[in-house]
Amino acid sequence: WFHTEGRYFYNPLNWDWRVIRQETIQDGEMGILISLTGEELPYGQFLARLDENGVPVSKGIVPGVLRPGRHAIHPSLFSLERRSPVTIPGGFKGVVTNLAGPLAEDPNQLLVPKGFRGVQEESLDPGTYFVNPYETRISLVDCRSQRFNLAENKYMGFPSKDGFWVSLVGIVEFRVHPERAAEVYVI
């Protein structure tokens, strides 16, 4: 049995107990649970299955994350891994790649609908996201205006008929359209 904090009365002749410290996840970090008990997963699967009481049925990475706070985690059932949440700064879009889930019907498409394995059609706006890095990968795409000066390092030029070097001044200014960030990332 595993109880959270509180008072419990059991006959000491029949029961033994030990006190386990609760795990504290600080602000600015998140926790990922790894199930240590249960049946082995089939080939190609890595996410653990839990029953309705939260007891692991299989070994592997537990879907979802633990937010900041105190959590009662049984050390014989789970291992805890601490990570930082993903922060998408202003001017960027977060391209979501789902690492777990069913495969899309058409394996040759660049972007898949939400919930399928692969690069998702929808991208994330700037902000902080608590996502399990084993379930979901978020890649940053810079959507700010960028400049490339071709004349800065004498990239553009040619010799004239009389042997003098003629340099051209050229500036290319570009940006990734935010609605097409996922497509640009894949291509």
What can you see in these coordinates?
This protein is mainly beta and 187 residues long. The chain contains one helix and 14 strands, in the order ββββββββββββββα. It has a three-stranded antiparallel β-sheet with strand order 3-2-5, with no helix packed on it. The chain has a three-stranded antiparallel β-sheet with strand order 8-7-10. It is elongated, with a radius of gyration of 26 Å. The chain starts with 22 loop residues before the first strand and ends with a helix. The relative contact order is 0.16. The model has no long low-confidence stretch (mean pLDDT 87).
Supply the key terms.
single chain; 187 residues; mainly beta; three-stranded antiparallel beta sheet; 14 strands
Question: Which helices and strands occur, and which strands form pairs?
Answer:
Blueprint: E1 23-25, E2 30-35, E3 60-61, E4 69-71, E5 78-83, E6 86-88, E7 92-98, E8 118-124, E9 127-129, E10 136-142, E11 146-149, E12 157-159, E13 165-167, E14 171-174, H1 181-186
Antiparallel strand pairs: 1-4, 2-3, 2-5, 6-9, 7-8, 7-10, 11-14, 12-13
**Apparent shape:** elongated
Distance from first to last alpha carbon? 52 Å
Helix content: under 10%
Measured on Cα atoms, how large is the radius of gyration?
Answer: 26 Å
Q: Which strand-content bin applies to the residues? A: 25-35%
Structural class: mainly beta
Question: What topology, given as strand order, has the largest sheet?
Answer: 3-2-5
Assembly classification: single chain
